[in-house]
Amino acid sequence: KSNIKQLVYHFLNAQRINLLISFTALICLFFMGGFIMTIWTGGRVTIIEPFFILLLIGVFLNNIWNLGMSLLIAINKQGNIGGVFLILSLISLSIIYLGIDKYQLSVVALSIILFEAGMLIWIYRYSMNLLDLNFNKLFKLRLERELE
To answer: What pTM was estimated for this model as a whole?
Structure first.
C-alpha cells in the first residue's frame, strides 16, 4: 500500500515537471518556430497557420500521455493499449480521409489532437483505476504531501 502511495507521489512530481517542460517548449516553439524552421530547412519550408499551432497542441498532449504510459510500463500493466492505439489511429485516418479536400493540412493536425487526447484520456483513466485513485484521492494525497 505504501509503495503505491510513493508511486503516486513520484508520478505527480514527474507530471508537474513534464507539464512545465512541455508547456515551456510549446511557448518557445510558438514564438520561435518560424525562425527555427527557416534555419533548419534553409527557408525551403514555411510554417502554415493554423496547422502549426494545432500540431503544437498535439505534441503537447503526446508528451503528457507518454509520461502516463511510462507509469504503466514501469508496473508492467500496459493492458490493451495496442488495441486502443489502433482504433484511435483508424478513426484519425478516417477523419483525415473525409476532411482533407475541404480542410487540407488543418484536418491532419486536428486528427492528431483527437488521437492524442483519446490516448491521454484512456491512459490516465486506466492508470487511475489500476492505482485505485480518483481526483478527490489525488487532491488529498497531494495535500498530505504538502503538509509533511
So the answer is: 0.83
